[in-house]
Amino acid sequence: MTEEKNMDPVELPIDGVLDLHTFRPSDLPDLLDDYFHACLEKGIASVRIIHGKGHGILRKRVRSIAGRHPLVTGFRDAPSNAGGWGATIVSLRAAGRRSDRL
Fold first, then answer.
1. Residue-wise pLDDT tens digits, 58-97
2. For residue range 3-26, what is the model confidence (pLDDT) as tens digits?
3. Residue ranges of domains in the chain, CATH in brackets
4. Cβ(69)–Cβ(36) under 8 Å?
């Protein structure tokens, strides 16, 4: 007997904070793209992405994707009281529509 995986979409709160601990690394490109667009639709231009400290692999992947994303104007480590190097603050440009997606 095989166990079925729940493939229902996950609804995330769009509040400018995205915790990646429950997502697979392969989900990141689409997840970040969708989240950046959703944040801009709500008028949120700064996003904190929580990737954890670990070995830094997820941090590098987040920053690689952010660095190529057309809506991103920059990124940096979060302040120490918001996760330090275990989170990345991404600044988004106000212009951009769904048709600008990767």
1. 999 999 999 999 999 999 999 999 999 999 999 999 754 4
2. 555 566 767 789 999 999 989 989
3. 17-94 (3.30.1370.110)
4. yes
